[in-house]
Amino acid sequence: MLIPTIGKAGRGEPLNQRSAAAFIIGLLLALAVFAGNEVAYQRAQHAFVSMRGIDSENASVEVVLHRLVDAESSQRGYLLTARKEYLLPGAEARRDIESALAHLRARFGNDPVLRPYIDALAARTDERLSELEETITLHEVGRVAAARELLLTDIGWEKMQAVRQAALALLSIARSKAEAQGARVLATLNLGRIGVHTTMTLSLLWFIYYLRKSAALQQEQRLHANDLQRERERLEAEVKVRTQELRGLNERLQLVREDERGRVARTLHDELGAILTAAKLDMARLRRLVDGQQSAEAMVRLDHLADTLDQGIHLKRSIMEELMPSALHNLGLREALEVLADEFSTRTRLSTDLILEEVAASDHSRVLAYRWVESALADVALHADATYVRIRLNSIQGDMLQVAVDDDGDATASTLPHPQDDSVVNLRNRIEGLGGSVSEGCVPGQGYGRVATLPGGAGSGPGVATQT
Amino acid sequence: MSVVRTYLVEDNLVIRDNLTDTLQELANVRVVGTAADEATALERLSQGTDDIDLMIIDLFLSSGSGMSVLRSVQRMNINAKRVVLTNYATQDIRRRCTALGADRVFDKSSEIEDLIDYCATISDGTATVAGGLH
């Protein structure tokens, strides 16, 4: 059955397409995760840089306020003591304030939101410093009363408050800006997180799906393999059954043939034999009669008739032997093999050695063993270039009998089995069909050996076979 | 010239009748009994063999075999001459039959004349023992 194979091939292509689609989806997902994370990182980096800027902004504003108070203290000290050295810390504070403001400008001057607040802080600071400068100048030129007057007004305090407010406004706007940035970072991070989670979930789902698919595929392959295995076993069993049937059929045909040959041989022996013998008896009587009458011509005719009869007898005998070896039929396997070996030896002038045990054999085994030895001897005569042949017959374990035909032929020429014709193959098949076996081959340095094993069986043939 | 009292063990009726007629006509033989199978033959022989001078035995019988008959007769140790008349007179068979006490083995087809001659020698008392010419 080829159906499973066709079905598999049919599903193969969509599977590949699905794999390609899955690969593309996986690639896109990976790219999305990569891009999302990169964007989040860039944004976060930017935000962190900005937030670090907020810190330095804070510090600068602190410096401005702190140093402004220092400048104020310096002015107060000078006004109270009129000693010049009190002015020194004020000058230092003024320089620090300028550098802090310059730092703020350099760092955040480009920010359109922060710029006005920085400018305002700078202006308020400048106004306050100018006011301080003015009182000191008044004092230096001797207008101490005017300086004191100016100091005692609320102008200084108001200017200081204005600076503080400008600083607060700047810090507040900077903080809210930082907070907005922080919120953006959070949002970005959140987006990245969602992306990672989604990707991981999708990947997990895909992995589970893939596992299930591959498990299903494996299951299908297993089923398919099982199907194939079953199919193979079924076919093997079928072949075995068919072979058995054919063997049986062949064996029945061969048995019918043997039966037929046996029947014809028996008829020849019993009926024709009797008729010929009766004729010979009549011949004998006629001969005496004619002898008494002294008729030479009658004697010649009688002699001729006797010759003709003898020819008939000879013909009957050879036909009979060919159909069914009478020794096998009448005497048993061992005796039949002796006769066969004798004839073979006479015909081929090979020396034969017989080691024959009395064995029990069914009619069937007996005929097959005999025919097998016959074909083995033909093989010896044809192929073996031998001078000697040994035929063995013995019982072996398990109610089996074994016949062997060994020769001293050209063993070194080839270790291959001799070529076999149809009748030999058929014989082997029949022996195997009966539960026996046949083997042959070279025995290096010794010759060529052939062994057949056949079932013994209870039917031991004609009485003579078991009586010696 | 004494009458040769003959017991015939032969399963084929045609041969039996023709042989009886021929031997009685040509060789001073009188057939005193016949058997077609081994059991009948042994049954007859067990009743005594003093009235038998010659046994003519076919090897292949309707049941049993001439060989078995020969073997039984050999054990009985009787005086009657025993000849085998068979369609299967190979050297091997001749050897076996001789070993089982047969005086002569004749081929049914080609040695009928010899059988008749042998019967005649029994009649005139010149029959030789087993292993002699035939």
In terms of topology, how is this protein built?
The complex is a heterodimer of chains A (468) and B (134).
Chain A: H1 3-81, H2 87-108, H3 114-140, H4 144-152, H5 155-293, H6 296-323, H7 326-330, H8 333-348, E1 351-356, H9 363-384, E2 388-396, E3 400-407, H10 422-433, E4 437-443, E5 447-455
Helix pairs in contact in A: 1-2, 1-3, 1-5, 2-3, 3-4, 3-5, 5-6, 8-9, 9-10
Chain B: E1 4-9, H1 13-26, E2 29-35, H2 38-46, E3 54-57, H3 66-76, E4 81-86, H4 91-99, E5 104-107, H5 112-123
Parallel strand pairs in B: 1-2, 1-3, 3-4, 4-5
Helix pairs in contact in B: 2-3
Structure write-up:
The complex is a heterodimer of chains A (468) and B (134). Chain A has 468 residues and is an alpha+beta fold. Helices cover 77% and strands 8% of the residues of chain A. Chain A has 10 helices and 5 strands. A 5-stranded mixed beta sheet of chain A has the order 1-2-3-5-4. In chain A, a hairpin with a 3-residue loop joins strand 2 and strand 3. With 134 residues, chain B is an alpha/beta fold. Chain B has a single domain (4-123), classed as Response regulator (Rossmann fold, 3-Layer(aba) Sandwich), CATH 3.40.50.2300. Chain B is 41% helix and 20% strand. Chain B has 5 helices and 5 strands, in the order E-H-E-H-E-H-E-H-E-H. Chain B has helices at residues 13-26, 38-46, 66-76, 91-99, 112-123; strands at residues 4-9, 29-35, 54-57, 81-86, 104-107. Chain B has a 5-stranded parallel beta sheet, sandwiched between helices. In chain B, strand 1, helix 1 and strand 2 (29-35) form a beta-alpha-beta unit. Mean pLDDT of chain B is 87; it is low at 130-134. The A-B interface holds A 269-270, 273-278, 280-285, 287-288, 309-310, 313, 317, 326-327, 330, 335, 338-339, 342, 462-464, 467 and B 12, 14-15, 18-19, 21-22, 25-26, 59-60, 64-65, 67-68, 71, 87-88, 90-92, 108-110, 112-113, 116.
